[in-house]
């Protein structure tokens, strides 16, 4: 039969592959699962979000509008998110996605003389922080919420 002939041909010449076989062998089963919540109420720069059961305090989230926020007080049913930016773009029922990262900011010599926002993004019109992009000196990042050093050591 034709199927048997094709199998023999493939066994004899392993270099011969069809486009379908190539797609099968190159197929990746990597899955990325996002935890999504929904905005319940929002106002005064705070959004209450339902459904982010595994979120950590200090974790960055992203709203459907692209606005970012930080989780401050996870509770059983919902979490309070401080909105970084204008909360007018956020409506009740909007989706919110966990980023999985605790809020951190760039630190080091690349920031000397620069004006940055609360997330370390330059707002002085002088372009990106070059040392951070190239991975050079000053490319270190530190968490925003860190334990203060002791007074007496």
UniProtKB/TrEMBL annotation:
It comes from Taxus chinensis (Chinese yew). CDD domains: ATP-synt_F1_alpha_N. Signal peptide: none annotated. It holds the Pfam family ATP-synt_ab_N. Gene3D superfamilies: 2.40.30.20, P-loop containing nucleotide triphosphate hydrolases (3.40.50.300). GO terms for molecular function: ADP binding; ATP binding; proton-transporting ATP synthase activity, rotational mechanism. Residues 33-100 form the ATPase F1/V1/A1 complex alpha/beta subunit N-terminal domain. PANTHER family: ATP SYNTHASE SUBUNIT ALPHA, MITOCHONDRIAL (PTHR48082:SF2). This is ATPase F1/V1/A1 complex alpha/beta subunit N-terminal domain-containing protein. InterPro entries: ATP_synth_asu-like_sf, ATP_synth_F1_asu, ATPase_F1/V1/A1_a/bsu_N, ATPase_F1/V1/A1_a/bsu_N_sf, P-loop_NTPase. The keyword Glycosyltransferase does not apply. Belongs to the ATPase alpha/beta chains family. Keywords: ATP synthesis, ATP-binding, CF(1), Hydrogen ion transport, Ion transport, Membrane, Nucleotide-binding, Transport. GO terms for cellular component: proton-transporting ATP synthase complex.
């Amino acid at each position: 039969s034709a199927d048997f002939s094709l199998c023999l041909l493939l066994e004899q010449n392993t270099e011969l592959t069809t486009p379908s076989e190539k797609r099968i062998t190159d197929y990746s089963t990597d899955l990325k699962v996002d935890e999504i919540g929904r905005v319940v109420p929002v106002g005064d720069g705070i959004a209450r979000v339902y459904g982010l059961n595994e979120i950590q305090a200090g974790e960055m989230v992203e709203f459907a509008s692209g606005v970012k926020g930080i989780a401050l007080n996870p509770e059983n049913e919902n979490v309070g998110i401080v909105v970084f930016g204008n909360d007018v773009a956020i409506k009740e029922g909007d989706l919110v996605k966990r980023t999985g990262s605790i809020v951190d900011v760039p630190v080091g010599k690349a920031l000397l003389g620069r004006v940055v926002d609360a997330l370390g993004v330059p707002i002085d019109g002088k372009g990106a922080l070059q040392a951070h992009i190239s991975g050079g000196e000053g490319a270190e990042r530190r968490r925003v919420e860190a334990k203060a050093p002791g007074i007496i050591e």
